[in-house]
Amino acid sequence: MFGIGASEMIMILAIALVVIGPKKLPDLAKSLGRALGEFKKATRDFKESLEVNDDFKELKEVKKAFDDINKDIREAGNIPETPVEKAKTKPPQDIAEIRSENTTAETEEAPKDGQGIK
Q1: Domain presence at residue 68
Q2: Around Cβ 20, how many Cβ atoms within 10 Å?
Q3: Residues 6+ apart with CB under 8 A from 80
Q4: Residue 116 within any structural domain of the chain
Q5: How many domains does the chain have?
Q6: Which residues neighbour 17 within 8 Å (Cβ) at sequence distance 6 or greater?
Q7: Amino acid 76: pLDDT
Q8: What is the per-residue pLDDT for 22?
Protein backbone atom coordinates (compact mmCIF):
# COMPACT_ATOMS: atom_id res chain seq x y z
CA MET A 1 0.00 0.00 0.00
CA PHE A 2 1.46 3.37 -1.14
CA GLY A 3 4.77 1.64 -1.89
CA ILE A 4 5.45 1.09 1.83
CA GLY A 5 6.66 -2.29 3.04
CA ALA A 6 5.44 -4.12 6.15
CA SER A 7 8.46 -3.18 8.28
CA GLU A 8 8.11 0.50 7.34
CA MET A 9 4.40 0.44 8.20
CA ILE A 10 5.12 -1.06 11.65
CA MET A 11 7.72 1.64 12.28
CA ILE A 12 5.25 4.42 11.33
CA LEU A 13 2.55 2.94 13.60
CA ALA A 14 5.00 2.66 16.52
CA ILE A 15 6.06 6.30 16.14
CA ALA A 16 2.40 7.38 15.85
CA LEU A 17 1.58 5.42 19.02
CA VAL A 18 4.36 7.16 20.94
CA VAL A 19 3.64 10.66 19.59
CA ILE A 20 -0.17 10.62 19.58
CA GLY A 21 -0.84 8.21 22.39
CA PRO A 22 -3.00 5.09 22.66
CA LYS A 23 -6.22 7.00 23.46
CA LYS A 24 -6.25 9.26 20.40
CA LEU A 25 -4.79 6.80 17.86
CA PRO A 26 -8.14 5.08 17.01
CA ASP A 27 -9.81 8.47 16.42
CA LEU A 28 -6.93 9.54 14.19
CA ALA A 29 -7.15 6.28 12.23
CA LYS A 30 -10.91 6.80 11.72
CA SER A 31 -10.47 10.36 10.49
CA LEU A 32 -7.62 9.32 8.17
CA GLY A 33 -9.81 6.51 6.79
CA ARG A 34 -12.68 8.93 6.17
CA ALA A 35 -10.35 11.44 4.53
CA LEU A 36 -8.92 8.73 2.29
CA GLY A 37 -12.46 7.63 1.32
CA GLU A 38 -13.45 11.22 0.48
CA PHE A 39 -10.29 11.62 -1.57
CA LYS A 40 -11.05 8.46 -3.55
CA LYS A 41 -14.64 9.61 -4.12
CA ALA A 42 -13.48 13.05 -5.32
CA THR A 43 -10.96 11.41 -7.65
CA ARG A 44 -13.62 9.09 -9.08
CA ASP A 45 -16.04 12.02 -9.61
CA PHE A 46 -13.32 14.01 -11.34
CA LYS A 47 -12.51 11.12 -13.68
CA GLU A 48 -16.22 10.71 -14.51
CA SER A 49 -16.55 14.41 -15.29
CA LEU A 50 -13.57 14.15 -17.65
CA GLU A 51 -15.23 11.20 -19.39
CA VAL A 52 -18.48 13.19 -19.75
CA ASN A 53 -16.53 16.09 -21.25
CA ASP A 54 -14.96 13.69 -23.74
CA ASP A 55 -18.45 12.44 -24.68
CA PHE A 56 -19.61 16.03 -25.24
CA LYS A 57 -16.57 16.69 -27.42
CA GLU A 58 -17.41 13.64 -29.54
CA LEU A 59 -21.03 14.79 -29.86
CA LYS A 60 -19.91 18.26 -30.93
CA GLU A 61 -17.63 16.72 -33.57
CA VAL A 62 -20.50 14.57 -34.90
CA LYS A 63 -22.83 17.61 -34.95
CA LYS A 64 -20.22 19.62 -36.85
CA ALA A 65 -19.86 16.82 -39.40
CA PHE A 66 -23.64 16.69 -39.90
CA ASP A 67 -23.80 20.48 -40.23
CA ASP A 68 -21.06 20.38 -42.88
CA ILE A 69 -22.90 17.66 -44.80
CA ASN A 70 -26.16 19.60 -44.50
CA LYS A 71 -24.45 22.74 -45.81
CA ASP A 72 -22.99 20.84 -48.77
CA ILE A 73 -26.39 19.37 -49.63
CA ARG A 74 -28.05 22.79 -49.42
CA GLU A 75 -25.39 24.34 -51.63
CA ALA A 76 -25.65 21.52 -54.18
CA GLY A 77 -29.44 21.62 -54.28
CA ASN A 78 -29.68 25.40 -53.91
CA ILE A 79 -32.02 24.87 -50.94
CA PRO A 80 -32.50 27.86 -48.63
CA GLU A 81 -31.39 27.47 -45.02
CA THR A 82 -34.65 28.90 -43.69
CA PRO A 83 -38.03 27.26 -44.24
CA VAL A 84 -39.82 28.09 -47.47
CA GLU A 85 -41.26 31.57 -47.42
CA LYS A 86 -45.02 31.96 -47.57
CA ALA A 87 -46.46 32.77 -50.95
CA LYS A 88 -47.01 36.47 -51.55
CA THR A 89 -50.39 35.87 -53.12
CA LYS A 90 -53.13 33.88 -51.55
CA PRO A 91 -53.83 30.61 -53.38
CA PRO A 92 -57.37 30.12 -54.75
CA GLN A 93 -59.72 28.39 -52.38
CA ASP A 94 -61.49 26.10 -54.82
CA ILE A 95 -61.72 25.11 -58.47
CA ALA A 96 -64.57 27.57 -59.12
CA GLU A 97 -62.25 30.47 -58.25
CA ILE A 98 -59.56 29.14 -60.58
CA ARG A 99 -62.04 28.77 -63.43
CA SER A 100 -63.45 32.24 -62.89
CA GLU A 101 -59.93 33.69 -62.95
CA ASN A 102 -59.12 31.80 -66.16
CA THR A 103 -62.30 32.86 -67.95
CA THR A 104 -61.78 36.52 -67.06
CA ALA A 105 -58.22 36.35 -68.34
CA GLU A 106 -59.37 34.72 -71.62
CA THR A 107 -62.09 37.29 -72.24
CA GLU A 108 -59.65 40.14 -71.67
CA GLU A 109 -57.15 38.71 -74.16
CA ALA A 110 -59.69 37.66 -76.83
CA PRO A 111 -60.33 40.14 -79.66
CA LYS A 112 -63.72 41.84 -79.48
CA ASP A 113 -66.17 42.01 -82.37
CA GLY A 114 -63.82 40.50 -84.91
CA GLN A 115 -61.17 43.18 -84.55
CA GLY A 116 -58.34 40.70 -84.67
CA ILE A 117 -59.58 38.97 -87.85
CA LYS A 118 -58.43 40.34 -91.25
Answers
A1: yes
A2: 14
A3: 74
A4: no
A5: 1
A6: 25
A7: 78
A8: 85
